[in-house]
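Aim 2 progress. For Sugar ABC transporter ATP-binding protein, the working sequence is reproduced below.
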Amino acid sequence: MSLFEAARVEKVFPGVRALDRATLTLEPGSVHALLGENGAGKSTLIKIVTGLYQPDGGRLLLDGQEVHFGSPHESAAAGIGVVHQERNLIPGFSVGENILLQNLPTSRGLVDRGRIRAEASRWLAELDLDLDPDQPVTELSVAQAQLVEIAKALSVQSRVLLLDEPTASITPNEAERLFRVVAKLKDAGCAVLFVSHKLEEVFAICDTVTVLRDGASVLESGRLADLTRDQVVDLMVGRVHEALALPPRTVDQTAAPLLELEQVGTATGHRGVDLTVRPGEIVGLYGLVGAGRSELAKALLGLDRITAGEVRVRGKAVRIKNVRDALRTHKIGYVTENRKEEGVFLEQSVSRNIAVTIWDRLSKAFGYVPAKSEAAMVAQYVEKLGIRVASPLQLAGTLSGGNQQKVSLAKWLAAQTEILIIDEPTVGIDVRTKDAFHTLIWDLAANGLAILLITSDLPEMITLADRVVVMRDHQVRGEVANDHDYDTMSQQVIRLIHAEKPEENAA
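Predicted structure tokens for this construct:
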């Protein structure tokens, strides 16, 4: 008998059938993959299983008995834990308080801080995560927050654990730690559901797979050992997915850099950072969680104080005050890794999200922005980036993750940036949309844009970057010229990550 089953589940939103009699079966002592393109219904199904949504049809069964969950609390009480794709940490609480939130230890009616520290440390140690349980979660990077979410789910010791894109913002090293924990849970008889767009991870740790397409199950509990990667992708997209082939692109190494960092230090702790990005070049920043990559990008945008060294844009030393100054004065754009909180205004239309960076350019007297001018510009970028919308007036929050990311990118392209920092561009994006993004980034560089690419996805880095700059502990550990051969590049990058001190001329 299965441990958990969602049988012929239906969910309808206005104008959209999100789930169409979808079925999911989880066995004890197994890791089951749930796959599908963006918008296929994966997150909707998880939200029904955890009580966030109520199904319009079908049944949920736990140990063969029908169950009804009116809230996430009821689902958790029944032994179902979840790590959502969107982080759900409480900003005002510490790391330890967030991990043990569902069962805070008390003594004589008061919260027992000592036990919080001890028990939270236990779950952090499971992930080899060196964090202080008393640290506020507001101080964490996106990747650290993701790992705390995972520790939080582990602390509940659930019989069924749902992992929705758990490795989206973490590097392969952190992912390996997670996979060791998943193996322990499997051996203990838990049922683990693993949702990921990284098929190499799916084939590495999962036993069975369910594939959703357009809200329906096109494969139910298939054995992964009997399937190839191409067969799985074919089920997801409805046709054989062709491997991405990017056209040749060269970088003029004699061209003056658009962006230069010389011995830069920041208030966050960077020391002696040297970096250059030329027109038409993609420079990758790679490193483990806490390496300081995103923090360096934010310092370049005036969001953190630069305490030493020099930043030069087009050969001139600059002090960038804020994001507006970065864009207006220096033509620097930033596609953030945190698209739902920083990248798009979820409650605003697609049109407003794209046009926000150029309203001053479109505006007439008294700040009036002609609707026709805005609509024409928005239509241009909706078509150029292939953003799937019912109308430019559609709210950005109703789009799939891939389309939200395209909207986030579109606003910077509309502003005619010349230097673009792209942070984790394909987190939570399906294989076909990811290829479209890779092609888009490649084409932007081919047209002369200088791109600083931050990604925890090493295959993505090796696909796109011309050079890979490796960071650890807020320092540059070395640099590797990319020959796009995964085996040799991954070995060189990993060697630099673990180097004891920065190396010179690693390329």
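DSSP finds 18 helices and 22 strands in the chain. This observation will guide construct design in the next reporting period.
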